[in-house]
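Bumping my old thread because nobody answered last time. Still need a sequence for this structure:
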């Protein structure tokens, strides 16, 4: 016979259990819990460093240059960060930017159509690549590293092969004289002048994407799904999260931003080199990791990716303003990656210890 302990009656001298959701959290604990805290500290350090070592770094004209360099990385770092929060990678993101630009210009040139027709075709094809990556990942259960590495290699070959087949060289023909070029350039590659400082329109694209991604992560059901699948796909599936749709949607997000970046590349320079973009996927991942995203998924923020891209912009241009040998850039980028990762890990430990 098993004895059952009597239910404990509430005593006036013993406080009742309190729902943890009703507990007050101090601003310090909230700050420690932010994924981008480490990257913000790093950004301040980089800013101060180049402010002291490069006289022209603090000029107003330099701000537009730094922000432009950051925006070209940041536009792609945003969806890559969301994908990493969802627990996956995309090694084809860099060459997909070039593929998007090549499709737009070659379709418009060969079909003698309005430039906007080529842009629309490029959007559809680029999104289809994103769907392919997500579908293959969920269908085969292979690691995203393998799936997207295969896509990377195929796109690299297609970019070069089709460009040489159609134009006879490794670069595309000009489409600057075609109908719709000026309006497309205004949307994807124009420049706004405020005072004496010029700001590329990519900065606005970047800011809008960061705001949209932050809203999705923090205010929508899809954002909850992203964190859930990044924390554990099987556990997320068990509680009703549509894992397949979520991951395909994340890859489509990467594809959409690759399309935006590709159109900027095309309408900024008019022609596109088929070999561009190789290696940029690592820079997007670095920006997301510096911004606080975990390699293992389930943790990070879009704002953090923006800070990581801003650090990249400050470093790439700060070295030029300081008149250093640009060969040192990759060294500083690698050092920042390690330092930011260590700092983010320390911040997370402090946040967990303070709970």
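Sorry it took so long. Here it is:
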């Amino acid at each position: 016979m098993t004895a059952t302990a009597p239910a404990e009656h509430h005593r006036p001298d013993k406080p009742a259990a309190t729902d943890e959701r009703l507990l007050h959290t101090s601003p310090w604990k909230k700050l420690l819990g932010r994924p981008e805290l480490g990257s913000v500290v790093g950004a301040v350090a980089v800013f101060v460093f180049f402010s002291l070592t490069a006289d022209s770094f603090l000029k107003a004209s330099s701000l537009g240059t730094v922000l432009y360099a950051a925006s070209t990385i940041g536009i792609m770092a945003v969806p890559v960060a969301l994908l990493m929060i969802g627990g996956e990678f995309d090694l084809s993101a860099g060459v997909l930017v070039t593929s998007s630009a090549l499709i737009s210009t070659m379709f418009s040139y060969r079909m003698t159509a309005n430039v906007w027709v080529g842009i629309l075709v490029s959007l559809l094809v680029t999104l289809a690549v994103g769907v392919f990556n997500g579908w293959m990942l969920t269908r085969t259960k292979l690691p995203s590293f393998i799936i997207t590495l295969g896509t990377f290699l195929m796109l690299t070959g297609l970019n070069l092969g089709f460009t040489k087949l159609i134009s006879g060289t490794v670069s595309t023909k000009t489409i600057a004289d075609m109908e719709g070029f000026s309006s497309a350039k205004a949307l994807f590659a124009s420049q706004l002048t405020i005072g004496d400082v010029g700001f590329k329109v990519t900065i606005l694209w970047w800011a809008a994407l960061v705001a949209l991604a932050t809203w999705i992560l923090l205010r929508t059901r899809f954002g909850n799904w992203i964190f859930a699948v990044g924390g554990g796909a099987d556990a997320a599936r068990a509680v009703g999260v549509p894992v397949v749709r979520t991951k395909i949607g994340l890859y489509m997000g990467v594809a959409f931003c690759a399309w935006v970046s590709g159109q900027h590349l095309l309408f900024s320079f008019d022609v596109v080199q088929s070999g561009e973009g190789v290696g940029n996927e690592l820079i997007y991942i670095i920006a997301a990791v510096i911004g606080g995203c975990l390699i293992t998924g389930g943790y990070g923020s879009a704002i953090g990716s923006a800070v990581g891209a801003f650090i990249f912009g400050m470093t790439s241009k700060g070295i030029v303003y300081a008149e250093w040998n640009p060969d040192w850039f990759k060294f500083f980028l690698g050092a920042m990656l390690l330092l930011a990762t260590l700092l983010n890990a320390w911040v997370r430990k402090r946040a967990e210890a303070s709970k």
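Residues 1-23 have pLDDT under 50 and may be disordered. Let me know if any region looks off to you.
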